[in-house]
Amino acid sequence: MRLRKFRVRAYRCIHDSGEINVGDLAAFVGRNESGKTTILQALTLLNRDERVSELDLCDEMTEELKNEVRLAEGEFELNYHEINMIKEKFPGIPEFKKIRLFRTNRDPKVRYEFDDLHLEEGESSTINSWENFGRNILEFLDTIPNHLRIQLDTKFFEGPAPKNQLAFDTGMADFSNQFHVIAIQEPTVIQEWEKIFREPQNQFASLVGGKSERSALENFIESEIHPRFVYFSDYKKIYGNINLNEYIREERGERESSIEYIEEFDKAETVRNLFYLAELDMNELEEVKESPSKCIKLLNSASNRLTSKLNPAWKGDPIHVDLRYSPGNIMSVVISDVHKDGTITNTGLLNRRAEGFKWTFSFIVNFAAETQRAELKEAILLLDEPARNLHPTQQMGISDLLKNLAGSNQVLYATHSPFMIFDYTPGNLLVVELDKRKHLSRIFYDYWNADDKTLTPILYGLSRGQVESMTDREIGTNSRPVIIVETMSDSMYLNAFDKFLQDPNISMNPLNVIAAFNKNSVLPLAIFYRNHGYKTFILLDDSDESKQISSQLLSNEFTPVQLISFEMEGKKLQSIEDYIVLDDYMHAVNQTYEIKLRQEGYSNLSADEVISKDGKGSLEKLNRIWQEHSDDDWGKFDNEEITRYICEKITMEETEFLTDKTKDQFRSLYRLIAERIRQYQNVNSKAELSKFQKKRA
What we know:
The protein is α/β, with parallel strands linked by helices. The chain has 26 helices and 22 strands. The strands form five sheets. Strands 1, 2, 3, 5, 6 and 7 form a six-stranded antiparallel β-sheet that branches. Strands 8-13-14-4-15-16 form a six-stranded mixed β-sheet, sandwiched between helices. The longest helix has 23 residues, at about 660-680.
């Protein structure tokens, strides 16, 4: 079965999730404490043998919980094999492809609903059930001579259904032997019994439990095809040397101390997973360990199997895993790096590797083993942060593992990482948000409507194609020039005023404006773009930090033509805001802070008041004024707020406050940028690109 919809109510921090569609490989994304783990654990309530704890019921819903509430319910889609199994057992029931399961706060058992399917609730004699089978046997016994009947013990047929095939076979064999002994003088009676005993429909595999059509169907689903949720949260770590004596005692339940020879080891389960992937039998190893040649052959085969199963999920250079047997009944896990040219380096014990390497190796071993076991096939796997502590390249390796699993298992997992999000289809990407006032979680699959902070990893993931396109030199060499700016405000002004001026002679359209994350990221970002074939220019202000960035760019073989400073009439400007006439800029400042600081006694500032302050540019002078009013709770002057105000007014075409002089000053900036691009294109840029590509190679 595959889960297609679910709903959680009154469970821990979740009042009501609403009905959520879910795909075969679904990621739950949300901030810490948003309820992702709660959702995964709530779904385990649909397991057949799960129990509901009173502590898990939502404290805020005490009144609602006085009545019966469905804590977890799911709509499941049956696969082709399951549909045929039901057809074979219940030929009289119309075919159905969906089933709903739910668990309440009152009933200890999971219950079933069959939409639009009419099932008889009353007792039926036509169902091939254990109850009807037992009744038919007793009716047959009523037809045999009474002196035989009273000697037979019929408790087996009057009691509950046998739990398994073995119990059925044992009970039937005991009764049949008893029958043969008692009726030895009556061959005709024995012959009639043998007909019943050998009848195909009277075999355990053909019987179903339940007296009514509904109960029989429910009992069959419960015993044969009930979905199973398997929750993973504890990813255990493997170290280098394993004491096999202690491992064997642990397997027998005779734990004395750690089974790890050198370092602490979490549980014998992880060693068991390691040996499971290697297909290494401890009994076989015990037989050959005194013969070095046989032991080496056995371990080499096991090591190769283990390596082949781990490498598909391992990103970067492949690894080879060696299992080596040492005196004292110690098994060593030795790792080597295998390079593309076939050379092998860095051979050594696993416990000598970095913590991140050990964690990655251990996760892949544990997860691959537990999901490849036969008992987990077709299970619904719930993973809580499966890629925590991993480098992004390894996270992508885990994501490949999950994608491969999605064929045989449905996989639902919680993550914070953009590298673990690879399907943006609604239903395969679910957002979890927490209402802090009510401390309640809500889930929705129209994730684009989520809170901006919740969306952060999703947006990074959505932009991965853009990042990958940046590393493609063919795209770089054939792209428009790139201009890297130091702040988000610079980018907003350049794009907004380009639209505002509507001057085709100086348009910024031939440019890609790239906003650096901060000033520290300007240098590496510029080098990266330049080395990947982009015609790269950098727009800098006149601060000391920007002057230092300019020197570093020149030392990294950028030309002075590529470095553009804010300037006007030969004089350098402190920031892009200095292209805006001060009176125009102060209109935006006063409009913004008149509302923002109304409670703090803010009154409009004039341009003359700003000019009177010490400082190189308008931003520095305004920051001085805000510092003087720190005791008045003005806070810190936020120039980005003003940028947003001005750009919003340009978008709405409400620009009466912007004078022609401001427009002309911005035109001078665009002319400067265009002139630098022309100068650069006159230089042999192809030869320069070839030089950087050769250097990189």
